[in-house]
Structure formats: C-alpha cells, structure tokens
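Good day; I would like, with your permission, to put a structural problem before you. A protein sequence and the structure tokens that stand for its backbone fold form the material at issue. I would ask you to consider whether the tokens describe a fold that such a sequence might reasonably adopt. I set the record out below, with my sincere thanks for your time.
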Amino acid sequence: MARPAGAAKAGGRPVGAITRGTTGHNRLRRSDRWIAAAHGRLLRATERPLVVDLGYGASHTTTLELFTRLRRVAPGVEVVGIEIDPARVAVAKPYEREGLSFRLGGFELPVPRPPTLVRAFNVLRQYGEAEAWHYWDVLRGRLAPDGVLVEGTSSENGRRAVWVGLCPEGPRTITFSARFDAFERPSDLADRLPKTLIHRNVPGERIHAFLSDFDHAWAVSAPYGAHGLRQRWLASVRALSGSWPVSGRPPLGGPARWRLGELTLPFSAVDPRA
C-alpha cells in the first residue's frame, strides 16, 4: 500500500509504491497521439510548458517517445520522467537531453513548477478503488490552473487502452481506443478500465450499461464488416450516438478520431458517483 500523501514532506521519500515496470516500444502510442491532438494547442499556448510522465517503468522508452511526439506539436515542451525506483532512474539518466530529464519521485511530483500535463499510465492498477480516487485528487492538485492529467491503462502491446482526461476540477472525459483487430467485441476493453471504474462494470452501473450498448451496436453493425472493421466501428459509434454523448467536438471526438479506433465521451456519462 502506498504511503499517505504527506509522507514526502515528513520523510523526504517518494509517495507511492513500485510498479511492475512493464513497458515497451510504442506501448503508449495511441494515447500519445490523442494527447498531441487534444492538448497540443494548450502546450503551444503555455509559456515553458512542463509535461510529467509519472511511473514510466523499467525503461525510458515510452517517456522518450512522448517527448519526441510532443516536440513535433509544441517545440518548447519540457518532459520529465518520474520513477519511484532509484535503479530505474539511474538506467534512464544516460538518455537525458535538452528538454528531457528523469528524476526520482512519486505522486508528490518533484518538479520545479506546476505541470501543464501529467501522463500516468499503468500506475494505479495496483491500488484499491478508494486509493485511485485519492491519487486522482492528489495529482489534480499538482496541476497548473489550466493543466491536464491523463490517467489510463494499456495492454502490454499497446493495442487496447482506456484513459481519463482530468482537469483541476475533476474528470472530464474517458477515451476507449483499440486496433480494430485487437478485440472481438468492444466490451473486451473492460480489462483496461481505470481502477475507479473497473470494479463498477456490473449490472446497474453506468459503465456496464455503456459497454453493453456498445456491444449491441457492434453486433447490429456486423454487415458493415464486409467493408472492413473500421467501417463497422464507425457504424457502431453512429448507432451509439442516439443514446450516448459520443459526438464530441474535435479534437476530442468526431469522425476523424473514430476512424483511428477511438471513442471519447464525457466522464459524467459513466461516473459512478452521479
């Protein structure tokens, strides 16, 4: 179990627990692509934008990939990879360069100024649901006033992922993303749900209703599969739009994002607290 949020100030040690550290090339490509599209404008508009990659794992790879992709849309961005395991930080240090650094830390985010964006993937899976809500609050409290937290989970090969976009006021969006050949039905993405929702995927809960409706839309859209799985996905999303708020404005939603195997809706639509 993680130490309480005040432990960093009291003992000077990072807040949190060491993860398994599993990572690999392009594991987080889908979320990186979304971050660049959805929040590139924010990063460009911010003076000295700081991005934190929290809990990057046993390899620096996904942090370096995030840095490379964000520099294409916001050349002035600075990325800091934070890990709670000193050995992992030591391994990553030789890969530092201008604008990219690695340091020891945890949920306290030991950075010089409030970050514009925090990416935390495959970090909260080992915590309980109540702890996950707590650390959402902790991280939101560390953000710049217009900052964003992107917290999610991906499969080990990166072909299925779900993430939540949060602002300082709370969770705003949830995104489902998958390669079209990486699932049999949309509810297969349930094993990538954030810890705040994964145990809520039961009858009577909103997230269960959404995934059930998505499965039904996928089933009735089967004839479109003759034109490829992308067309079936697009037809499924259009079918969902009659009962779920999936027609978000670009860059968070809309046909251009759907074609990539993404679907974003307001978190309020599946919020178990509502």
Notes: Confidence is low (pLDDT under 50) at residues 1-11.
